[in-house]
Amino acid sequence: MSDALPKTLLRMRGIGKNFPGARALDDVEFTLKPGEIHALMGENGAGKSTLIKVLTGAEAFESGEIYLGDSKTPVINHSPQEAQSRGISTVYQEVNLCTNLTVAENLFVGRQPGRAGFVKWGEMNKRARAVIQRLGINIDVEKPLEVYSVAIQQMVAIARAVDISARVLILDEPTSSLDEHEVRSLFCLMRKLRDEGMGIIFVTHFIEQVYEVCDKITILRNGQFIGEYETENLPRRELVSKMLGKAFDDLASIRDEAAEARTGAEPMVSAKGLGVRGGIQPFDLDIYPGEVIGLAGLLGSGRTELARAVYAADHPDSGELTVKGRHIGRTPLDAMKAGMGFCPENRKEEGVVAELSVRENLILAEQTKRGVFKLMPRAEQERLAEEYIEKLQIKTAGMETPVKQLSGGNQQKVIVARWLLTHPDFLILDEPTRGIDVGTKTEIQKLVINLASQGMSVMFISSEIDEMLRTCGRICVMRDTIKVGELSGGELSSAAIMSVIAGGGSDD
Amino acid sequence: MTENIWRRLSGNRMFFPLACLFLVLIVNLLVTPDFFSIKIMSIDGDPHLYGRVVDILNRASELMILAVGMTIVVSCSAGTDISVGAVMAFSGAVSIWFLGFGVLGVDGKYSVFAYQIPYFAGILIALAVGALCGACNGFLVSKLKIQPMVATLILYTGGRGAAQLFAGGQIDRVEVPSYKWLGNFIPGIPVPTSVFLAAAVIIITALVLKFTALGMIIQSVGINNKASRLMGMRSSRVVFLAYMFCGLCAGIAGLIATSRIGAIDANNCGRNIELDAILAVALGGNSLAGGKFSLAGSIIGAITIQSLTTSLLAMNVTADQLPVYKAIVVIIIVALQSPELKRMVMNGRARLIPKNAGAK
Fold first, then answer.
1. What is the interface size between A and B, counted as CB pairs within 8 Å?
2. Which of A41, A64, A479, B228 has the smallest C-beta neighbourhood within 10 Å, fewest atoms?
């Protein structure tokens, strides 16, 4: 191996991969040069992680070639270990080191210096200190890893990767759990490694961070290669529109009614300085009766966190919340009793109670609201279940069918129905249309508009801007866990929303 | 046609637990023809029901009571309470200590020759101690989020030692006739008292589950804790109460066990019974991973286990060898219920009898 740096570290050409029933990657290109921090961007399901998995050998691919260095012969990695031996290391969002071992042990585990099964602890610690110092991290290598913050742990993981002679370093969402200051020091380290000639692939959804630290951006969308751009030549707005797949000018505003007249109206729900540490920065928000309010933003921008803070699903650290002028306690039960309902984003993990029947899933929330000792009579349960199965057109063999046997869309309807059954004044729907067929999507959108016309307030969260424009009278825009803007009435257009999402380089 | 009936039968949750019990009873009947006969015998002028079935129900009462508590714990926390045997001994020991109020008897032990506090108070103390132990387990599991196995391991080891402490390291007898009523017969009533106690625990629990939303909430918490929380359930409180209830059941079982022999033997009271209780839940077709449960299944499971124990003992299997035979039968029963084995059998049959038999 020559000392001179190769022209490219890594070239991926025409990569294709199928998942059952879907094209996960379609003719994807990716090139990484030495001394480059290269962002890999795209919305959920764009194929970022699949591409990384293909590269590191965690998954097989069907077509295309991967070249390392200036070599003309393609390589295929069959396992992450093999990729590592070729100089490709990955550091994931969740640090997979042993936090109860010392820093030095973590750095050298599996390759401890020693002889005949005995570890030379002194030498190991000395070498560990050298590695750590070279990267400018100031910690004691003999302390267990768990005494240090997640950020430091991540850096140790990077140090380990670097020390195993990595030339390509993949950072998969490394900043998601770090605070501002920690992100700074991580970037410092990344720049240092870049200057030493390493190539870094940075997978993230934080736009500001990309513009701060990356040289190049490759964008994927629905498994397709959209393009590779120099960061400085790609305005933020264009980046967002490429990720979402919409040009600014070809989307006319669908909804151009004026915002509902709400002057003088008492807000249904009012949040002042409400915030959750590590989730959402303090925000103010008033929600009026009969209003559909949307939350827009990229994945991880704090949409879900804002909704969860309002419902007290996550315990707020600051601020206060009033419902119809009254302060409420800070548990989901308090929120329910104040007239709220919450359909979480993650249907499987937080929504359905899989083994219980459709009937039980439908009445559970109402039952809890009434209290354990006020069991709803079986006849009433069945009447309500029947009514809502009919109302929302839930397709099920019967009301006693376990809910896990229903299709995703019908499970979603069960959860929405569960809350409608409690007659809430304010209903939060977090991604209610994700992963369900188009027909059901439209039904849910119609339902939302209908509910609002009956005086209910609805908070609607969706990744699809079109959908929100169709249903919402007002849209709050989130960026990097901050509520950055509010658009309503005539201002509502996908161009306007995207430019607020992109922030920074936008014209205002 | 027959296949259809078979499928509907075997699809029922209760089918396998009942089939297993039936199997054990049939074998019993074949070995001992007078298995189901019940006689009334007079002892000291009191009529007592005697017979193998009565004996099994009598002996199974502690296990049934424990199985009720264990079912609830398994359902909502996907874990087991392995401390119930030790809690039985501990609550029994504390209760007897209070009954004798620590007065050293004429035999040099803390044996009780006359109640120092009313008998009823002694019963309440046993129940309170059981519930307290359960609360302790519940706190560790629900608030400190310690794995149920580890959390209850503390009382599993510590409980018996604490029982020894209260018993003064001896087997303390209670020489007051009324003390033996709970675990044997109340004068004039031919049915063993413990059968009534077990029935009472089962019926009260079943009624509470039927007339409140507790059953649904317990299952919901056990299946999906996060979703349950978002629906306003205080899931950690539910888990706490479940463990407390399980401890209370252990307290009741402890009363029966000590009353049965009229003494507290801290080393042997309820020894290894926690495993039988867990087994009863599993034999009843309940998943140890929590979630949906059937109280009836667990009780059938408890009776099955006790029938097995009693009949093996009657077949002159010694108490030391008993676990081996029991293990063999349990393996068979559990394997019969395993969906994995069912699939293997199906696959095997499909391979032996190819669909297009005749074609090469």
1. 77
2. A64
